[in-house]
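Page 47, continued from p. 46.
Same chain as before, 180 aa.
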Amino acid sequence: MRWALRSAWVLLAVVGLASQSPTGSAFAASTASASAAKKGTAAKPAASDKIVKITKTEEQWKKQLTPEQYRVLRESGTERAFTGKYWDNHATGIYRCAACGLDLFDSKTKFESGTGWPSFWTTIPGHVEEHSDMSLGMLRVEVLCARCGGHLGHVFDDGPQPTGMRYCINSASLSFDGKK
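Result:
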């Protein structure tokens, strides 16, 4: 049943009729919004209007970020599985955006997905944006930082309860603040 629902939604999304996923996550109206957000220009408003957007030039981002962080956060890159700093981190704390420091995920929501990337079953509400992504010829949902528009990873509907979601995130897009 879940597969049939997902397949029907994908068909509607491809022809431009769907505005929400079967799990209720909002999508951008076009991939142009996602592209603009990745480049640091104005993105769709975050769920929380308290987030103040950060806009920098590509040169400013290059000076601030490591080459790997820049590749992932600003060019929508992906680190290889099982190589990132946080995929096997079990400490208690908060995962933040490596570019702007916005709190994104609580370690209480991290789980072992077996994928080789840090995986979470939910986000800190209003601190991420989700956009449709057709970059590999299939519909996926890209996850972006709500403050700076940095690419974090993707979200899938095969995670654990209570949400059933798996936010599959690149370690290079994160910093970690452990609680003492």
